[in-house]
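Please, structure for the following, as tokens.
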Amino acid sequence: MLTKETVCVKDVVDRRFLPYVRKPARYIGGEVNQVKKDLAACDVRVALCFPDIYEIGMSYLGLEVLYAVVNGLKYAAAERVFAPWLEAEEVMRKAGIPLFSLESCAAVRSFDLVGFSMTNELCYTNLLNMLDLAQMKVRAAQRSEEDPIVIVGGQAAQSAEPIAEFADMFVMGEGEEAVVQLIELYRQIKMRGGTKREYLLEAARRFDFVYVPQFYSVAPTGSESYITNELGLRNHFHSAVVRDFENAVIPERPIVPFVETVHERVSIEIMRGCPGRCRFCQASYCRRPVRLRSVERIVEAAKKQYAATGYDTISLLSLSTGDYPRLEQLIDALNAQFAPLHVGLSVPSLKVQKQLALLPKMVTSVRKGGLTIAVEAASERLRQVINKPITDEDLKAAVLAAFEAGFLKVKLYFMVGFPGETEEDIIAIADLSQRLSGLRKDVDGKWAEINAAVSWLVPKPHTPFGGLGQRRRQYFEQARRLILDRKREKNMRYVKFKFHEIERSILESAMGRGDRRLCDVIEGAWREGARFDLWNEGFDFGRWQRAFEQCGINLEEESARSFEPQERLPWAHLGSPAGLEMYKE
């Protein structure tokens, strides 16, 4: 039966946990605009879990939206759960305190649905750790009827097989409408005294965005083809899409955290999807079609959020804000409303084209400290390969316009490891950075400060590059040397380079494109202490190498694996957009 009692652990948390952790404000709840319902009076109780610390999770807009959607249902309640930091986990384990929610201090295992927003492969061990801290079995097959249903959404759902053994259900695509449908179905089955299996089977039959791994097994041919013995179940899935984006929920009263978070601002998604198709970008292929919100709707939402929070910055979010067709009109409207209040605008995700060249002149209230531009490749030829049609002329015009508008420095994002890339393309990263720094001399006679971040290409599922093997470690090490040697050779005092950690990129490539064999790898690494792999305090590459070896898999070979055209991709059944062909060198 799906009915269960709510277990509150507030007394033990107050006495045996909060006095012994470094940042108790991460765990106490009670912030401005928090929603706290009577869990016992709600038909469906949902724990919204984020597999990272409070400061990161509270800056994730997706969690904020789901929180507003679920709590907008009269018969349902949503409460937040974040991953305890290392010292807090130690306190919990010593005291036997189960993982709990912030609003009611309720044990996670007493909720009906436990949903995880998984945004990165390097959070997989935190998923297992949070289940274990909740005093639940990490494998779905070992959990009982009394345990809540574990649902995974976000990026991980689009390539679910590496963690298929740990979740009861994956929800692909956009969650605003899907979560309501799933909660309503749960409520119906609960009211008639149904079981967990009944719910999972009905959801799998009814919704094409739902994947329940326990009903599927890998075909014995050795290919990554998944079969089911259950009647009425599909073999291919499609992402949920919110068609009416104009009227989709925008949180009107966002929670104001007690501690400083990554982003402290009014955040409004102005457009969903991206008209560009950069061949390395998973989001641009998985979030389709492009949908817009009206200027009027955005301004009204900004007014409500500002009144409820008092934040001094409004951030306009999308995969490519510069492609919003009414951007100039939107900025004028926001400036008219908020400039007198000394509220600034943050306009990320800009395109380097004529629109961007004009933008610094339009945005009189944008913070002038620096401008961020994702160039990706330093040569026009390589940008054509990755389908990012930026010309050097447009790039120069954009940066020069930024300096003329008062911006003092520029941050550039580059990536190394693209197909068809040469040593000259890599060296050009340093040369381009220096040329852009020199453009400021035409404005005030000074070199501009350029911060160039260089990452390593991680082939992503559902993209044209997804079937390509990642470049070897030695290639990336050589690329780093080439760039730094060029910096020294030309004495680039005003250009600073920051390189992503190569070993993390290798692990991300192996995990993101893996199959169900990786469930054993991930559990093995977690049992050896892996968690918080996105953090320097938690990441240990040697631990992961050993976990792969114990399962008979070579980590670096797995990351460099190329799929043949005839191979069945491990993610092919999980909503891969039609018409994509593997990009070949």
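The two ends are 55 Å apart (CA to CA). Residues 577-585 have pLDDT under 50 and may be disordered.
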